[in-house]
Design goal:
Strand order of the largest sheet: 1-9-8-2-5-3-4
Radius of gyration: 21 Å
Number of helices: 11
Shape: globular
Largest sheet: 7 strands, mixed
Oligomer: single chain
Length: about 300
């Protein structure tokens, strides 16, 4: 049944992707018009409004509402772009998703260093999976992913993200895979989207991000330090609909010279700047701040109290 559902999903999406992108954008604008008329239909509208208001405390309600509408327009456009990805050729994707400063990554690889590319859910992160086309085949090209709950959709997205040469590795397997390559002196590039909210048990560090106290993933930094990898940030900019540029910026080439969590801090500062310059193009529907500092402190105190009671 899973295979049948996958084939149906892939077939429908592939057919839909043959429609010219400009026509898909017209459909996206039609849907946007419906959302403007019926705001209660907007996907996760409460979360989007809360995230925007908390992240931009100095902006007026009118300014927040303007960013919100622009976000939904982008969000719908990106859905169409992701569908179109099913049929985009390598030549077409190269025109639409460009990468600057590639020499930064290639020089690190040629020097014998492997590279972690920090990314965020900003602009079209799905099209970033075309990067492997620009990296020589002699290097391993990985992208970390989190499994989707729906197995059919998970299979579909894995196939889609692998169209241009990237190999998707589950987060829980990535360290073992990279460590094996490192021990064999084989260079690799791995992309990690690291702006999700961690589970309570995975919270080890908090930072100030988008005017809010924010729990962050530190697993990427631990991998970078353990394997002595270079780290780069991919700053993605939207030129116009269907046209993006990714500029690479070096975070660090010698991680163990930095203090603990400094790599994570640098990443979030670069990501924050990227978002501040392009507010509508980050994934505001994600409930990024659902875990708060006060809740975390309370959980720690409760756990400490329980431990003390047991010891007594």
């Amino acid at each position: 049944m899973r295979q049948v559902l996958y084939l149906i999903l892939r077939g429908i999406t592939s057919l839909f992707s043959l429609i010219p992108l400009r026509v898909l954008y017209i459909f996206a604008d039609f849907l946007l018009g419906i959302l403007i008329i019926f705001p209660f239909l907007r996907y996760r509208r409460g979360i989007v409004r809360k995230n925007l208001t908390s992240s931009f405390p100095c902006k007026s309600k009118k300014e927040i509402a303007h960013i919100e509408i622009k976000f939904y327009r982008f969000f719908l456009s990106m859905i169409m772009e992701s569908i179109k990805m099913c049929s985009l050729t390598k030549k077409q994707i190269k025109k639409r998703m460009k990468f600057n400063n590639l020499d930064l990554i290639l020089n690190e690889l040629e020097s014998g260093n492997s590279v972690v590319i920090y990314l965020g859910h900003i602009c079209n992160w799905e099209w970033l999976s075309s990067l492997p086309m620009h990296i020589p085949d002699k290097y391993y090209r990985y992208q970390v992913y989190h499994r989707l709950e729906n197995s059919v959709m998970d299979d579909f997205m894995l196939k889609l993200r692998g169209r241009f040469g990237g190999i998707s590795i589950p987060m829980e397997q990535i360290y073992r895979r990279l460590n094996t390559l490192k021990n064999k002196n084989q260079q690799f590039v791995v992309g990690m989207i690291a702006d999700q909210v961690p589970l309570w048990r995975n919270i080890h560090y908090w930072t100030d991000f988008m005017n809010q106290r924010t729990p962050v993933f530190t697993g990427s930094e631990r991998i970078i330090r353990s394997l002595n990898l270079s780290s780069v940030y991919g700053q993605v900019i939207r030129e116009k609909r269907g046209r993006y540029i990714c500029n690479f910026k070096l975070i660090c080439s010698d991680p163990n010279k930095l203090k603990k969590y400094e790599i994570t801090e640098r990443y979030f500062k670069l990501l924050e700047k990227n978002i501040m310059e392009n507010p509508p193009y980050w994934l505001w529907t994600h409930n990024r701040w659902k875990r708060t500092w006060h809740e975390w402190v309370k959980k720690k105190n409760d756990k400490l109290s329980e431990s003390q009671k047991v010891s007594q």
